[in-house]
Amino acid sequence: MNGALKYKYGICVDFKAYFNSFLLSRSQRFWKLVRGHRVYTLRTLPTGSVWAPALAQIYSVAIATYVKHMASDHVAIDVYLDNLRLCGDSLLGLQRSLRLLYKVAAEFRVDINEDLEEREGCDPTKYEFLGLLFDHSNRTMDIAPHIRTKIQQIDPQHDGSLRSFLATYGLLCFASMALRIPRCDFYFATKFLRRRASARAKLDEPARLWSSCKSAVAQWRECILGRAPQSYQELKGRYTTYIFTDASNCGYGAIRYCESGRTEVLSGKWKGGMKKAHINVKEAKALYIALSSFKLRWADIHVVVDNTSVVFALRNACSKSFRLNKILLRILHLNLRILSVSYIQTNANPADWLSRLNRKLFVSRHSPFVLSALARLFVLPLPRFDAATFVTVPTDLQPVTGLWGH
């Protein structure tokens, strides 16, 4: 998504009534609908079918691949269902590719919302794509004006239905991912949903927001509205990740959260001598397992644990325990860029419940629907929308110098 800013120009197109483009043959008799005494034959793929988005993506990728293969100029094409974006450094070449796209779409019997002349007359250096505003002249990315307007209209003190709060939460999450705002400082909004948005919850019932949740939403809203557009230099290269770990007598757990929205969940059981080890050693071991399991080569890491002894040992690179020092040395040999080590209370640690699962687990997803699978695995009343909602980071992160800083 951000890679488009390395080009000078970009043009977006949007397919019209896209699912109606997938014509069905008369031989497919199972595509019928019975209402009363009448039988209706479907001529196009039903929009509500679960495979319609996958088919639309395949169809769009086929069109984009053909255009890219036939175009004489170098262009990059981003595809998301019925939304396509063409990027390149030559404006004339981009326009030639755009005209070729219109011809190919016509051959595929796909209509495009805008006329070719209208699309060629648009500003190729500044446009909206998938709710984001891209400015190629300044190489910046921001949320689109209509998204910003919706965020401005959010009333944190309004206690509506659970459905309306889910919509508000999703909007804030989208803006946070676009502007690279960690959702850690607004943990109580997430915690409220974890408690209330279970499988038994009715979406139209009153939300009954906590006062801490309202305060978190208000701070979240102001943080997004005050955020400056993200430049291309800030968006490329290294990335920031937050790792939360916890240990119990049963096992260990860890959650990794990236600015992109990627979330990785890790848990396991203690074996052998670790079952009788001191809790401080277990906490340090849980951190080592997390750091060695996640791919963190290009990451700027913020570590958050709920054990003050481990925090002190990590910040000072030593402790009075020989076993703890041995684990610290193994962490040092990982050669990772750890920027900060912070303490978090156990009841606010999102990795706390993972350490008590008493089973081995590793989940790595970009998808916002990962929690539906997690809920089935853990038999817990978890929400179904965003795996990153597990994650929080305290506001008083302190940089680490010396051994861990680079």
CATH-level-2 architecture of the largest domain = 2-Layer Sandwich
CATH superfamily of the largest domain: Ribonuclease H-like superfamily/Ribonuclease H
> Per CATH, what is the topology of the largest domain?
Nucleotidyltransferase, domain 5
Which sequence of SSEs, written as H and E, runs from N to C? EEEHEEHEHEEEHHHHEHEEEHEHHEEH
Instruction: Determine the structural class based on helices, strands and strand pairing.
Output: alpha+beta
Average pLDDT number: 78
Largest sheet: 6 strands, mixed
Strand % is: 15-25%
Explain the layout of strands and helices.
Elements: E1 9-16, E2 32-35, E3 38-41, H1 52-70, E4 76-80, E5 83-88, H2 91-107, E6 111-112, H3 116-120, E7 126-129, E8 132-135, E9 140-143, H4 145-152, H5 162-179, H6 187-196, H7 211-225, E10 230-231, H8 232-235, E11 239-247, E12 251-258, E13 263-269, H9 279-293, E14 299-305, H10 308-316, H11 322-333, E15 337-343, E16 361-365, H12 370-378
Parallel strand pairs: 11-14, 14-15
Antiparallel strand pairs: 1-5, 1-6, 2-3, 4-5, 7-8, 8-9, 9-10, 11-12, 12-13, 13-16
Give an overview in words.
This protein has twelve helices and 16 strands. The chain has helices spanning 52-70, 91-107, 116-120, 145-152, 162-179, 187-196, 211-225, 232-235, 279-293, 308-316, 322-333, 370-378, and strands at 9-16, 32-35, 38-41, 76-80, 83-88, 111-112, 126-129, 132-135, 140-143, 230-231, 239-247, 251-258, 263-269, 299-305, 337-343, 361-365. The protein has a six-stranded mixed beta sheet with strand order 15-14-11-12-13-16. A four-stranded antiparallel beta sheet has the order 4-5-1-6, covered by helices on one side. Strands 7-8-9-10 form a four-stranded antiparallel beta sheet.
